[in-house]
C-alpha cells in the first residue's frame, strides 16, 4: 500500500542518515520497521494489567507546561514513587518512577502525551507483577 506523509525536512534528513548508516536497503523498509516498533511499544503499554513497576521518561519545554505537569503529577501521586529532573536550557528531561496499578500508570502516560509542549514520552515496564 502506498501512502504519503508530511515530515519536516530536518527530521527526514536525520531519518535518512540513520537508516543509511544502519545499512538498511530503503527508506520504505526503515519506515515499516519504525512503524512496527511503534505498534509493539504501544501494544505492550495497552496489554499490561495488574500491579506493575515502570519508568517514564519525557522531555518538555519548561516555561510552557511546568505548572500543568505539576498538577498532573499530583493527580497521579498514588502511582508515582519518585521523579528525577534535568534542566537543559528551555527544555527539561524528567524521569518518573511508578509502581501500582498498570491502568493508572497508562492513564498517566496518556495525560503526559496530551501536552503539546511535551516532546515524547517513553515507557519502560520494568517488572509486571500481576
From TrEMBL:
Gene Ontology biological process: regulation of DNA-templated transcription
Domain (Ribbon-helix-helix protein CopG) ranges: 1-41
Pfam families: NikR_C, RHH_1
Residues covered by the Transcription factor NikR nickel binding C-terminal domain: 53-124
Domain of life (superkingdom): Archaea
Alphabetized UniProt keyword annotations: DNA-binding, Transcription, Transcription regulation
GO molecular function: DNA binding
Recorded family membership: Belongs to the transcriptional regulatory CopG/NikR family.
Protein name, as recorded: CopG family transcriptional regulator, nickel-responsive regulator
Amino acid at each position: 500500500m502506498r501512502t504519503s506523509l508530511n515530515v519536516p525536512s530536518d527530521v527526514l534528513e536525520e531519518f535518512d542518515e540513520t537508516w543509511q548508516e544502519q545499512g538498511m536497503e530503503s527508506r520504505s523498509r526503515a519506515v515499516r520497521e519504525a512503524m512496527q516498533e511503534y505498534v509493539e511499544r504501544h501494544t505492550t503499554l495497552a496489554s499490561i494489567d495488574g500491579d506493575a513497576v515502570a519508568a517514564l521518561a519525557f522531555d518538555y519545554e519548561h516555561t510552557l507546561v511546568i505548572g500543568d505537569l505539576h498538577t498532573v503529577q499530583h493527580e497521579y501521586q498514588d502511582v508515582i514513587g519518585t521523579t528525577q529532573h534535568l534542566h537543559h536550557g528551555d527544555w527539561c528531561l524528567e524521569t518518573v518512577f511508578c509502581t501500582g496499578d498498570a491502568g493508572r500508570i497508562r492513564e498517566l502516560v496518556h495525560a503526559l502525551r496530551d501536552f503539546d509542549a511535551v516532546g515524547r514520552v517513553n515507557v519502560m515496564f520494568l517488572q509486571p507483577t500481576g
